[in-house]
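Exercise: predict the fold of this chain.
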Amino acid sequence: MRFSKLYAPTLKEAPADADIKSLELLIRGGFIRKVAAGVYTYLPLGFRVIKKIEEIVRQEMESIQCQETMMPIIQPAELWKTTGRWDDYGPEMMKLNDRHNRDFTLGPTHEEMITYIVKNELRSYKQLPISLYQIANKYRDEIRPRFGVLRAREFIMKDAYSFHTSQESLDESYKDFYSAYERIVKRLGAAYSIVEADSGAIGGSGSHEFQVLAKTGESTIFYCDECGYSATDEKATAITEFSSQNEEKKSIELKDTPNVKTIEQVAHFLNVPLEKIVKSLLLKGRNGWVLALIRGDYEINLSKVRAVFQDQTIDMGDPMDIKNTFGVEIGFIGPVGLKGPQIIADDSVKPLMNFVVGGMEKDKHFINANIGRDFTVGKYSDLRVVKAGENCPHCKKPLKQARGIEVGQVFKLGTKYSSSMQAYYTDETGNPHPYIMGCYGWGISRTMGAVVEQLHDENGILWPVSIAPYKIAVVPVSMSDTAMVQTAEKIYSALLEKNIDVILDDRTESPGFKFKDIDLIGIPLKIIAGKGVKEGKVEIKLRNEKQGFMLSIDDIDKIVDFAIEKLNGYNPTSILN
């Protein structure tokens, strides 16, 4: 490709609405353009990166005998209503009606669709196990689409599904996909972590996420250097001993707490530690209201609450809805005298005595509240977000914290979908059984953003060689210098003969303009035909190194071989050290 023919409208200035570095650089580098909130067009450079990511994913899927298919984006509501997810999936599902007023969704995922497709075809145990995948657009109506292609409303995803006759067979496929995903993330050339994860709206009994590490990542990861345990904040647990409090129960009192709403303000006003305050959070799901209690120095983990109730629609109650329903502002909600909601509490609350809770009146709090005497807890569970420094659940060493961006996730679904959709195979004796299923997703467009979020510097993107839009840029410093142009053309032609993705910057712009564009775009290696041509030399320079290498132009093959050798050793993650 000649740069003069490339549609790559680069920008000098960052877009005003770029809320994350990857979005800024992908727009400035001419990779994508925003159409609407969470909706993007992939320009030629961006599409080349997407296709390279897809090819890596395809190769690894083929390596484990997973076969590619293509399913419709538009899915009838009946499929989702059969599994209960039409209502359970939540407001992120994009729903629409056709001209006959029939309900459809723009597929956020395809568990129902794939199960419907195979249920009338895979009827015998002899046909199983089998794995199918697709690479297609997905749609989720994010309430606040942000972070560019990392949290978009339309995105490109690879989703795969496996069907089995036994848990042991599912475990084998799960291992195969786990290994394939690890190979994918290694081939991408970015620093990563594999963590235990929450299954969320997909469901199932086990899940792992593949995270590209980034300081600005949207996911929090807790990990242990000692034993290798790692999990997302949605899933992470820790060994924390909450010792019993040997106190004499005091009489409950309602105290005035004017203009005091936050936990910190309550602690200061009443002169009590955070550990002596119980936060009361009203949550709402498909079955109504739930009151979740947690010690004042912890944060509630909504994923854990949803898992307890098996209800992915549970979310924080709307303040106005709470006030209209219970007659109290959210800062003063408490369990004493509350009628209606089921009360669930974190394990940290169980041993507490004589603690503070909301007074169910504006500017009021109870002190010396006690469980059993003043209110009843229906269920205790681990509902809190883990903190760095707490003890690893496996080896009890202190947990550390990092940030990451999820690019892939694998799930053990079990019979969640096959049972509800009556998708059965027959065993050796002719008896029907629901398929045992697995599900495996990889975010193609999300991967592009995640890699940029990790690998960039003050000059632009640093693409790993495997997914760079072009691996090498050949740059004649001046298009008016015949010797420079002829040398660059020879090298360009030799690289094309070697099937190297190369771009020749044949624009008549200044050298500085060209170099800034190439660095912004993130091409791993430059071959510069500049002033050194008069002395019979060209410069080879890696994107992440300040010093280049001078080679003689007498041997073009040697230049090409040297460039390929340098590419093979190129490691942009060195900037993370």
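Check your answer against the key: The chain has a mean pLDDT of 94.
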